[in-house]
Amino acid sequence: MKPSQISQQRWKFILLIFAAIIAIASLVYTNYLVRNLAHAERSKAEVWAMSTKNIMTMPDVDDEFITFIYAVRDSLNLPAIITDDKDDIIFWRNLDSTKTNIKPIHNDSVTKQLDYDPNYFQKQLAFMKKSHPPITLELENGQKWHVYYKDSWFLQQLRVFPYVQLSLIALFLIIAYTVFNSIRKSEQNLVWVGLTKEAAHQLGTPISSLMGWLELIRIKFDAEEDDTLNEMENDIKRLEIVADRFSKIGSTPVLTNHNLYEVIKNYVDYFRIRTSNKITFELTGDTHVEAKLNIPLFDWIIENLLKNGVNAIGTEGKITVNISENIAKEEIFIDISDTGKGISRSNFESVFQPGFTTRKRGWGLGLSLTKRMVRYHQGQIFVKESEIGKGTTFRIILKSNLKYEATQI
């Protein structure tokens, strides 16, 4: 892994830890607030229980004191239920009036139909028992009342608020990361496009000069059919193609219909004589399939994969290119296999990432550019299979330009 990649990984790790600290701090503080608010609500429930007990058990006292006790009792806004030792409900507070058949106080315009639902009481009591331990009141006659209550709406919302908040923050961060990452990649693409177009422009002049010098040599030495000069001309034409490739980066390529076998054969023949004779090449498969291609860019795809295979082989080996067609899906498979050192399964996806390389002097851009150019051709590329020490097979899938109609029997 290169230093730039290590630095990126370190920053991602630091940001992840920072986000975790914020999340933990938010949860801890919210839980602190919930505990304090829950304690305060229990105190209110205890006051309400005592005031209710006093109202129902106290002898005749001053009217003003009774009014005060009622005011204390009615100040509770928590849903609550009082039961005896047999779990029979004695009194309740702030339950749904449409289920208790009791018209709410301070509400003279109830539009909903009032009803009595015993199951509703039992469900509420069961829920309250699970929510908090009961408040037990001992009466003078030896009986015991049990007061059950549940959290207020505000406390219930406060319990889930941190999770909602963290979810929204996480969603915002994901969107922000996606947007900024897209902007960064767009800026990188603009830089690469600018560099490649400038390289194409700079190559134009020396290539034209080389063609002129080559013609002068042929005239001066009367060597129109010299094999060496013909190969030099082929290399100069290849430089023109490379410059043309660079000039097309960043633009939508024009795709035209071509015989796939012939296109690949032409490049393999060119590449073969410029590689060690200890590495053999074999082209097999369907010779009639057609696909829409941009020849300069498609040659670049084949070139990168063949060079990758040669580098993987090292000294002596074999590279096989096989073309097959899936008629049912109207797809063409191009399998490029080598007998090189192979790729570990964990790196099947990583090999296409910019900067990934196993070579000391490699830039790690070949397969990344190859994948992009395959996408230009509306296709896909992946590692079909690989075994350490035995070789690798890359598969390219393109849409076939030949249409087949189902035959009726």
Explained architecture:
- This protein has 409 residues and is of the alpha+beta class.
- It has 3 domains: 10-105 and 112-151, no CATH class; 157-249; 254-399, 2-Layer Sandwich (Heat Shock Protein 90).
- The protein has 9 helices and 11 strands.
- The chain has helices at residues 3-57, 63-74, 97-100, 118-131, 153-221, 227-248, 260-272, 295-313, 366-376; strands at residues 80-83, 89-93, 135-138, 144-149, 256-259, 279-285, 290-293, 317-326, 331-338, 380-387, 391-399.
- The strands form 3 sheets. A 5-stranded mixed beta sheet has the order 6-8-9-11-10, covered by helices on one side.
- β3 (135-138) and β4 (144-149) form a beta hairpin.
- α1 (3-57) packs antiparallel against α5 (153-221).
- The model is unreliable at 103-111 (pLDDT under 50).
In the CATH scheme, the class of the largest domain would be: Alpha Beta
Number of helices: 9
Q: For the largest beta sheet, what order do the strands appear in spatially?
A: 6-8-9-11-10
Distance between the termini: 59 Å
Examine the secondary-structure arrangement and name the CATH architecture of the largest domain.
2-Layer Sandwich
The total tally of domains equals 3
Helix content: 40-55%
Structural class: alpha+beta
The beta-strand count equals: 11
In sequence order, what are the helices and strands, one letter per element? HHEEHHEEHHEHEEHEEHEE
Shape: rod-shaped
* Average pLDDT number: 81
CATH topology of the largest domain: Heat Shock Protein 90
Q: How much beta, percentage-wise?
A: 15-25%
Weakly predicted, low-confidence segments: 103-111
Main sheet record? 5 strands, mixed
Radius of gyration: 40 Å
What is the CATH H-level superfamily of the largest domain?
A: Histidine kinase-like ATPase, C-terminal domain
